[in-house]
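seq:
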Amino acid sequence: MNDPLHLVCPHCHAVNRVPAAKLGHGPNCGHCHRPLFTGHPVELNAATFAQHIGRNDIPVLVDFWAPWCGPCKMMAPYFVQAAGLLEPQVRLAKLDTQAEPGLGSEHGILSIPTLALFQGGREVARQAGAMGTRDIVAWTRSRL
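struct:
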């Protein structure tokens, strides 16, 4: 359980090596010295998406959303609460499909909100539609 895990910093996006046994002990980034886990989703864009999906050794749950979407706005606080419950075993992230339409299209996002769970750089599960905190957490844990 002491094998190091690669974790991408939510602040500076540097890749860190953290022993698995220390994951729950509030590790900080070796580059910017800020916490690797904040209890909040990471805002992704075209420049940071591949880094977080491809370099994190923990699963990454992405909320594909848009600012004009009512159900997306309704689900947003629940997604934040889920981040507090799922970290440090899962990194939660948000991707604004209006600001990054190419990434939404590349990943076949046909409706929003859509949650996509990535592990090892590949999508392993997907769920469309707004959910509450309990459902987000239960759905994610059932897919790991």
